[in-house]
Amino acid sequence: MDRAQLADFLRTRREALQPEDVGLPRGPRRRTRGLRREEAAALSGMSTDYYSRLEQQRGPQPSTPMLAAIARGLHLSLAERDHLFRIAGHNAPPRLGSEHITPGLMRILGRLDDTPAQVVNDLAETLWQTPPAVALVGDESRYTGADRSLLHRWFTDPATRLIYPEEDHPRHSRFFTAELRAAYSRQGRGSRAEALVERLLKASEEFAEWWSVHEVGVPRVEPKRFLHPELGEIELHCQVLLDPDQAQTLLVYTATPGSESDEKLRLLPAVGTRSAGAGS
């Protein structure tokens, strides 16, 4: 670990970011060049003291999850993320299929604070959510192990399905299976996708039945109906932005203007965080 390089790199990347780049107000009294330390810390999901000690060459060696969080918080490019890992004494993570969200997607997310949106990888693991998305489907970043994948939860945990009307479940099952088939074809033998397939074939007869059909290219369920515990049924359209280099997808949920669902969507920030859910 090169403390001096790490401290200098964090400082220069923080100072290169403007509040507008990350969706923060500039304010009339701002004199700091770039972001303040407390802002960088908050964006990275850590305490100001911990982050500050890294910039002051006093902190412990950051773990790889901490470095990944800093890379997202400071909107680092892949090259910058790799450099961050190396000067902190770790090997750089693989690029394809990594959890690093590119600066472009992070900038888009920063402008969607009032809209349900989330970034998922090709195994339907949620990497980032806006607050309205958490209110709509729950905090999907809290899961660990195989349950990080919505595909796994969908076929093994009945509670996951409560977010959608029961009559829509077969269409979601068909789509999710086809998505995993496509991920498996991209990742190949010995991949995480293959491990998930093998796990689901043992755990779910329903998945095994859909898998045997060997479908690909199944369209998303559109429009998508959500069942919210406080707002009732919400009918939303899902706009999709694909980052092929990272095998990541940005999902943005919108409602028809002037509709009842549009009004309910506006109420999401007021209802807080949903305790459990699913979405993709």
Kindly summarize this structure in a few lines:
The chain is 44% helix and 12% strand.
Provide a descriptive summary of the structure in words:
The protein has helices at residues 3-16, 37-43, 48-55, 64-73, 78-87, 103-110, 131-137, 150-156, 169-187, 192-203, 205-213, 260-271; strands at residues 117-121, 126-129, 224-228, 232-243, 248-254. It has 280 residues and is of the alpha+beta class. It has 2 domains: 3-93, 434 Repressor (Amino-terminal Domain); 104-271, Beta-Lactamase (2-Layer Sandwich). Strands 2-1-5-4-3 form a 5-stranded antiparallel sheet.
Give the SSE layout:
Elements: H1 3-16, H2 37-43, H3 48-55, H4 64-73, H5 78-87, H6 103-110, E1 117-121, E2 126-129, H7 131-137, H8 150-156, H9 169-187, H10 192-203, H11 205-213, E3 224-228, E4 232-243, E5 248-254, H12 260-271
Helix pairs in contact: 2-3, 2-4, 4-5, 7-12, 9-10, 9-11, 10-11
